[in-house]
């Protein structure tokens, strides 16, 4: 049973997932800070402080939901551009593929194979 537990805990997928969750949490803090401390104040300077929390529909606080949706859209947009920039920065030049045989070489090989029969 201990061997099974060890195999489960130290599978490559489990360790990779744990690292991804931890890195994701730390990266989430960076994105949240970027949105809260930089992007939202810039938006506030341009269009005024975006706060919908006072909007009520009867006793339903729909404004809080609108704030969450707007925050989600801002975070998603910022994350999109961060990932796009990271992918561009990490892109490696395509490895040169070895050139295959020419059409003439292939035809000569087929001719030789047919001649052997």
UniProtKB/TrEMBL annotation:
InterPro entries named in the record: Mechanosensitive_channel_CS, MS_channel, MSC/AndL, MscL_channel
Alphabetical list of SUPFAM superfamilies matching this protein: Gated mechanosensitive channel
GO CC terms in record: plasma membrane
Transmembrane keyword on record: yes
Bilayer topology: Multi-pass membrane protein
UniProt GO molecular function: mechanosensitive monoatomic ion channel activity
Membrane-spanning segments: 12-35, 55-83
tRNA processing keyword on record: no
Cellular location(s): Cell membrane
Assembly and interaction partners: Homopentamer.
Protein function: Channel that opens in response to stretch forces in the membrane lipid bilayer. May participate in the regulation of osmotic pressure changes within the cell.
Protein's name according to its UniProt entry: Large-conductance mechanosensitive channel
């Amino acid at each position: 049973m201990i061997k099974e537990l060890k195999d489960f805990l130290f599978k490559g997928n489990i360790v990779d997932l744990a690292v991804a969750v931890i890195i994701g949490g730390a990266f989430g803090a960076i994105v949240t800070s970027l949105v809260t401390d930089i992007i939202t104040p810039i938006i506030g300077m341009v269009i005024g402080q975006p706060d919908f929390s006072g909007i009520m529909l009867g006793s339903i606080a729909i404004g809080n939901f609108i704030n969450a949706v707007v925050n989600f859209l801002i975070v998603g947009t910022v994350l999109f551009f961060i990932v796009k920039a990271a992918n561009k920065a990490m892109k490696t030049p395509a490895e040169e593929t070895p050139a295959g045989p020419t059409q003439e070489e292939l035809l000569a090989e087929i001719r030789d194979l047919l001649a052997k029969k």
